[in-house]
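Q: I have 441 residues here and want to know how they pack in 3D. Can you give me a structure?
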Amino acid sequence: MGGFYRYATQSIKNNSDANYFLYEIIKRNPKVKYILTNKVMSPMIIVINEQFSKFFFQEHQLFQKLSIFGIDELLGKGMLFAAGQNWKDQRQILANEFTFGKILERTDIINDVVQGRIKDIDKKPLMTVLSSITGEVVFQAFFGLNSRENMINNKEPQIEILSILDRIGINFRTNRLLYLKYRFFGKMFSKYFMTQTELDINHRIEYFTKFIKNLIRQRKNQKPDQTYFIDTVLSQEKLNDDEIIQLFNTLIFAGTETTATAAKTCLYYLALHQDIQEQLHQEIDKIVGNQRLQVSQIKELNLIQNFISEVLRLRNPVLAPIQRRMVPDIQIGDIFIKKGTWVQAATYLNQIHQKNYENPFCFDINREKPINDNGFINIPFASGQRNCIGQHMALLELKIILVNILQQYKLKLKESVQIVWRMSLTYSIQQNDFIEFIKRN
């Protein structure tokens, strides 16, 4: 296997951070533009260049997204991995539902979910609580249902799909047979010589798919008095049930895992920087007090906005979706990239590079814009036509989560816990018990 994953694994073992080896490369060699490694049995080029990032996101049709056993079955027809007209149809159907104005209308729903579930934040694993919150928001927005009243395998649906995806990620990183099968059988690799783990994953995917298909059928037979995402999708009659299921899976994954991970990372930096935490406490006390956050107050939370932006600059949770495979041979600037080569537009390295920022590894909520910004340096939600459709919802959720937690708690890092930054489906802190939540007077 070797290559990228081997270095990431060694970085975790030696430095408690899967990306440490990449950070050291750009620190020691600030002029480096390309890092050549391998991904499984294929070459991979990590490109650290904002001009390439611009090309990468604007000419997305020249790149093929990653195919992993299990991912295609869950998300392959959804908006994240779909291509061509199918992707355009899904994007157009949901575009009006994700405008800033439409998302603001969901402020009360998000407030209700957050206030009801952060009661467990010092009692249950942190990621479980945060995923329950962010997934419930998506589940209600899509189906208009409460996830705790629609359990699957004794789990909320968002927790179950994350559990499946996490198992897929572990299998992808550790199953050497998977890579050999991919080498010899290509996209059909998942049909041959299946291990017990793969059979178990398939069974869980099939069961989850049937569960969601049943919810869709129930909705088709109803005459709703309120419209949700599912009703907008069904009214267009452009997608079949399988495509609707994978569209939902995509939204529940992207809206649960990435936003929950970002929230978890925000809480880490608040606990790490007590002075910044105090500034945010003061802003919340002044604008919101101990009352419920109102829509009119959201735009006044400037420090919280700056804080979230700095967290996403330093520790963007989304890395895997920007690893893609070159479709044609192509010459880009001074580099020739052969068809089939894995390419990573390392936007997360552009965001912490000394050519773009002064003291880039320093956490600074008053940070200025990047030096010589071309619009493709600090792009935590990607850019171009395939940018993150849910970015407004994610930012609103993060603000509401932080306000509700900071209204009630002071955060402190537990000295006994050694923080480990791991690479799975997202770039995140491995531990869930690293913060002490202290009730405010």
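Q: Anything worth noting?
A: Residues 411 and 437 are 5 Å apart (CA to CA). The longest strand covers residues 34-39.
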